[in-house]
Amino acid sequence: MALTRKAGIRRRLRLPLALATMATMLAAGAAVLAPTTAAAAVPEKDWLHVQGNKVVDEAGNEVWLTGVNWFGFNASERVFHGLWSGNITTITKGMADRGINLVRVPISTQLLLEWKNGQTVAAPNVNTYANPELAGKNNLQIWDYWLQLCEQYGIKVMLDVHSAEADNSGHIHPVWWKGTITVEQFYQAWEWVTNRYKTNDTIVAMDIKNEPHGTPNSPPRAKWDNSTDQDNFKYACETAGKRILAINPNVLILCEGIEVYPRPGETWNSPNTDPDLSPNYFYNWWGGNLRGVRDYPINLGANQDQLMYSPHDYGPLVYEQPWFQGTFDKTSLTNDVWRPNWFYIHEDGIAPLLIGEWGGRLGQDARQDKWMTALRDLIVQYRLHQTFWVLNPNSGDTGGLLLDDWATWDTAKYNLLKPALWQHQGKFVSLDHQVRLGGATSTTGYNLADVYGGGGGGGDTIAPSAPGNPSVTGVTSSSVSLTWGAATDNVGVTAYEVYRAGTKVATVSGRTYTDTGLAASTAYQYTVRARDAAGNVSAASAAVTGTTSSGGGGGGSGCTATLVVTGSWQGGMQAEVTVKNTSTMTSAGWSVVLNIPSTLTIANLWNGNRTGNTVTNAPHNGSLAPSASTSFGFVANGTGTVTVTSCALAVP
C-alpha cells in the first residue's frame, strides 16, 4: 500500500471549533529543572546568544525558552484573535502565571509593509467593552500596548512571518513571496520591524518564515541547497538573518525546515513520484525537514552565535503520516523521524533547536496522546526549546490551551504541557533578569536574577539514570557499531561516555557510536554512562559484547553500515542504510550483509543490488573516497526488523 508523506493542508485558522469532551489524562508532575551553572553578574539587558546547542544570556547562564503561539496578526483581522471576547491583559497575565516565558506571534509580510508605509487598521476586531484599555487604538498601537504588557509580566516575544499576505490560510502558500510581495520586500519588511524595535529586548527572536514547503515538479516550492536561487530557503533565511543582524546583532535568528529533501544520489530535479514506489525524496511535515543542515548549514558569518533551527512536528490527528501506522513509541519516533530530520542538530552540537509548533487535541485518539506525550518527554529530557501550538481555541486542527470563551484554560492540555515549561524550585522562570514571570508581585515566578544572582541557584548534584541496554547494530572486521536507550536527568543529559572493557573510548552527544580500528574475529565488551552539564556521571549500563567479523569477504574491510528505520506501518517497514568508507583508500565497491528474518520480504530496494542477504553497490555509488558515505534503501513487507550483519569494501 502506497503511503504518502505529504503533510497536506493544515490549520484552518478561522473555522468554528466544535467543543470536544477531553478525557482526563494522568497528571504529569511539574519537572523542577535547576540551572546547570551559576554566574555572579546579572546583565542589564535580556539579549540571548547561542553556545553549542544551548541558549545563554549575556553572562553565559543557560536559559530555556518555553512558550506558546498566539495567532491573529497574520490573518485578515490583523490583530490577535480572541480580543472579540477575551481581555488582552487577563490573557497575557494568565500565560505568565502559568509558566509561558515566550510567545511566538505569527505576522505577515503584508502587515509589516503596511505598517512601514503608515497604514494601520483604525478599528480592528476588538471588543472594547471587554478591552477598555484598547479603546481608540489602531492595530499597531494595540501591538505596542501588548509588548508593554509582556514587559510588565516578564514575557519575551518571537516574531514569525507566517505568510506573505494577511490571510487566515496564508500558511498554505509554500514560499515567502506571492503576488505583488517580492523576495526583496520580504527582506525589507524584516529590516523595518527590526529597526523599529532594535532597542527593545522584549522581542528577542525572529522566526524568518513559517513552514516553507512544497514538492518538486509542483512549483513554487522551497528547496535547501547551496545556491542563490529564489526558491532556496537556506539562502533566503541566511540573507534575511544577515540583514536583520546588521541592524540588531543581538536578536536570535530561527530557520525552519522545509518539506522534502533529496535522497543520496538524487537532485532537486529528480521526479517527485510516489515516495514508496520510487522514493527520490525524504518527506516530513511542512517546516519539519532539516536534513539539509548536515550538508548545507546556515552561515550567519560573525553572528553565527545567534542561530537556532526550528522544526515543526504534529500528530496523527493533523495528518496520518506513515510512522503513525503501526506500533510506535518515543524510541521509534526518535530513531525513525526526529533524529534524521532535526534532532541530530541538537545531538551533534550544531545549534540549539526550538520546536516552533507542536500540539493538538487530547482524548480523541490514543495515538495522538501517545505522540504528544513522547515529544513532550523528549523536550523535557533534552531541554529543547519550544512554543506550543496554540493558545487559540479556533485552530481547526489542534484546538487551543484556551477554550472557546477565551478565558477558561484546558486543564488536561495544560497539565501535559506544564513539565515542558521552565521551572526552578517550584516556580516558573522568566527570560527577563529584572521582572519575574507574572510580574513584580508574582508568587509563582522567578526572574533570571533570582535563579542566577543569589536567589537560590545552587549546583546540580543529581546524576542521570543509567542508559538503556546497549545493542550491537553492525560489525565489520575492524569495527563494532552500537546503539543504546536514553538516560534521564533532572536537568538534561548532555553526553554519553562509551567504555570498552572498562576504558573510556569515546564521548558522544547522540546514542550511537561506531568503534573502529579493532582486530578481526575478536570479541569486545562495551558499557555506556550518561553525563549531564554539571559533570555528574551515571552508573554504567548493562554490558554488551560485539564480535568483529573475520575480514576479507568483499575484498577488504574498512567500512561501516548503519541502518535507520525511516517508516513503519502495519505489515511493513522502510529503512535506509548508510555505508561509510572508514579506510584510507578510495573504494572500487562495497557490500553489506543484512540479517533478514524469514517473516520479512524485501519488496523494493534502491541505490544498490541485492542477491539474497547481500547488497552491493549500484554503478553510480561504488566509488567512495576516504570518509565519504552513500546510502541505499528498501521497503520490506511482513513483520520483524532487518539488521546489518557486516560491511566490506572492495578496493582497487
From TrEMBL:
Annotated transmembrane regions: none
Record-annotated Fibronectin type-III domain positions: 466-551
GO biological process: cellulose catabolic process
Any one GO molecular-function label of the UniProt entry: polysaccharide binding
Hydrolase listed as a keyword: yes
Reaction(s) this enzyme catalyzes, per UniProt: Endohydrolysis of (1->4)-beta-D-glucosidic linkages in cellulose, lichenin and cereal beta-D-glucans
Source organism, top-level taxon: Bacteria
Pfam families from the UniProt entry: CBM_2, Cellulase, fn3
Residues covered by the CBM2 domain: 552-652
InterPro entries membership: CBD2 (IPR001919), CBM2/CBM3_carb-bd_dom_sf (IPR008965), CBM2_carb-bd_dom_sf (IPR012291), FN3_dom (IPR003961), FN3_sf (IPR036116), GH (IPR017853), Glyco_hydro_5 (IPR001547), Glyco_hydro_5_CS (IPR018087)
UniProt keywords, alphabetically: Carbohydrate metabolism, Cellulose degradation, Glycosidase, Hydrolase, Polysaccharide degradation, Signal
Listed name of the protein: cellulase
